[in-house]
């Protein structure tokens, strides 16, 4: 997706090497923590200078950190609307806290576990954010029906053959009846979400949307059972 977004001129991804902003001959970017303790800390000067070398008025500066707000589809949707993102990847024991206090607008975690560096987290964030940009994916409907986009998991899908070793695909999918297929997918999405991720159904706003789907359409007509 990163290559496609760049080829389509939807995004330009620039890598900035913090060592280019170090001031000593060894290009040092880490130092011992004040107060002692294990591990090295990333120095503030190279990070501030690196960010300042690319920052624009519309930049949204993100520090990848296990202590940040949790990355999810809503955050990806939010970031996809930003014009310019700067992602700071930490290493070692972490970054000097003045980066959090005085440089960044946002701190994002990709989950409750600790990676050795922020690079993999930055890739996760970019991969999921770039595909949401207008024009990135040819089939827009495919993205809009993906898991989490409507507060539910996506429906199950099948492809040919319709009968594989006696395992048959649900009849409705080969019926050619588009409205019935649509309703079946909505029901399946709700069923799977209840089974696998009931936590997703807790949001009130999303429940409203789900209830509307259960009633079988925008006109609110209840489906015959
Ligand atoms: N001492 C830090 C702590 O416990 O909060 C962890 C530092 S970690 C070894 C080094 C770097 O990896 C972090 O500065 C951050 O950039 C990145 N990182 C680690 N886990 C991450 C996560 N779950 N989400 C985003 N970035 C993460």
Descriptive tags:
225 residues, alpha/beta, Alpha/beta knot, Trp Operon Repressor, Chain A, 2 domains, three-stranded parallel sheet, two-stranded antiparallel sheet, 7 strands, binds S-adenosylmethionine
- Summed over residues and divided by their number, the pLDDT gives a mean of 91
What's the total helix number? Answer: 8
* Main sheet record: 3 strands, parallel
Percent of residues in helices = 25-40%
Rough shape? elongated
Give an overview in words.
- By secondary structure, the chain is α/β, with parallel strands linked by helices.
- The chain folds into 2 domains: 2-130, 3-Layer(aba) Sandwich (Alpha/beta knot), CATH 3.40.1280; 147-215, Orthogonal Bundle (Trp Operon Repressor, Chain A).
- 35% of the residues lie in helices and 13% in strands.
- The protein is built from 8 helices and 7 strands; from the N terminus they run αββαβαβαβααββαα.
- It has helices at 2-7, 44-54, 73-80, 97-102, 119-130, 140-144, 178-196, 204-214, and strands at residues 30-31, 41-42, 59-70, 84-89, 106-109, 163-164, 167-168.
- The strands form 3 sheets. Strands 4-3-5 form a 3-stranded parallel sheet, sandwiched between helices.
- Strand 3 (59-70), helix 3 and strand 4 (84-89) form a beta-alpha-beta unit.
- Helix 3 crosses helix 5 (119-130).
- The chain is elongated, with a radius of gyration of 23 Å.
- The structure holds S-adenosylmethionine.
């Amino acid at each position: 997706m990163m290559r496609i977004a760049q080829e389509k001129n939807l995004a330009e991804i620039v890598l900035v090497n913090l060592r280019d902003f170090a001031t000593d001959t060894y290009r040092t970017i880490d130092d011992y923590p004040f107060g002692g303790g294990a591990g090295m800390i990333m120095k503030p000067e190279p990070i501030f200078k690196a960010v300042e070398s690319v920052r624009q008025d519309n930049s949204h500066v993100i520090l990848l950190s296990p202590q940040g707000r949790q990355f999810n589809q809503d955050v990806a949707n939010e970031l996809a609307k930003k014009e310019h993102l700067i992602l700071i990847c930490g290493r070692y024991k972490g970054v000097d806290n003045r980066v959090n206090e005085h440089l960044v607008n946002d701190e994002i975690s990709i989950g409750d576990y600790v990676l050795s560096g922020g690079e993999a987290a930055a890739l996760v964030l970019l991969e999921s954010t770039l595909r949401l940009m207008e024009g990135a994916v040819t089939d827009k409907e495919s993205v809009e029906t993906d898991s989490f986009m409507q507060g539910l998991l996506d429906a199950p899908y099948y492809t040919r053959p319709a009968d594989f070793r006696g395992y048959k695909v649900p009849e409705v999918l080969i019926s050619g009846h588009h409205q019935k297929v649509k309703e079946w997918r909505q029901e399946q999405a709700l069923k799977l979400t209840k089974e696998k991720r009931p936590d997703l159904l807790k949001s009130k706003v999303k429940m409203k949307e789900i209830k509307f789907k259960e009633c079988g359409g925008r006109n609110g007509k209840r489906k015959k059972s």
